Structures are given as structure tokens and as C-alpha cells.
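Problem: given the chain below (171 residues), write out its structure.
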Amino acid sequence: SWMGSEFACILSGVNLEGMFPLPGYFLMLKVRDDKKARETLDKVENILERIGREKGSPFPLKFGEESYEGEEIKVLQVPVLAPGYAFINDFLVIGTSTATMKKLIDTEKGKDVSLGEDANFKRVKSIFKEKNNGLCYLNVEKTLDIVRGLTGWILSLQETQLNRMKSRKTA
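Solution.
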């Protein structure tokens, strides 16, 4: 297998700017054999593009490329979303959006603070003296900020719907 023994699942926030909340989520897989990994992803791309053509989708599945800070991001070109993947250092990174991917690249290039530099994470990690098989870390403060944002988005949506209902009744 081309995959190594490390992986990470990361929720980096929720974008509330679009039509609906979009989580900034990505999966990182350690790559042992870069050539095999790229060949596998090329096959996946071809399969997805073929399925899109065969099913007569109004939005055919097609991958494009975007270069950012010297890294190539492969982007699945679909409306509203822009999921993609990139090979960054020894990892295959699959993300829900190019914005998420760019944020990760910025962090990797030292332009943004990494989790390893976060004071709270350092305190939690210091508890584990030996190498371990798994670690789950949740930044409660940031999670509450996300929940507050989502709550505000939901309340705004409900208010809009109530106003539409009221205007229909008066019309």
C-alpha cells in the first residue's frame, strides 16, 4: 500500500459566508510511496470524471489544478463547493474546499499558527510522555465560537423565513 501509518482528521472552522455553512474539514494521510499514491489518485479522478459523463450530470465531475505557494492543488470543479487534494510534504491532504487547503499550506509554510504551536495543545500533549497510537484534541473555546456562529446563522435564516411568512399573510 502507498499509505503510511499516520493520519489526521481536522475541522478547522465553518465558513458561514455562502448559501449554507460549509465546514473546513480535511483528512491527511501519510504517504509511503508517492508515485503509487499519485497513480491511485489519477485513477480516482478518471473514474469520477467518467461517471459524471456517463450519468449525464448537469454538472459533470472534472478536476482542475490550482497552484498556491508552490503547491499544486487538484480541485473537483462543482458548483458551490471546491473540494480537492494536494500532496504536502509526506502527506496526501484531502479538503472540503480550496480555501481550507490554502489555509493548511499557509500553516505549513509558517504563515499561520499551527496546532503544534498552540499553548493549549502543548499542555495537553505534554501529558502524554510516550508515543501513542491515537490522540483526539478538541479546542473547546474555538468549538463554542463555531457553535455561536452556526446559531447566529440559523437564527438569521429563521428570521428571514418568518418575515416572508408575515409578508405573505399581509399581501
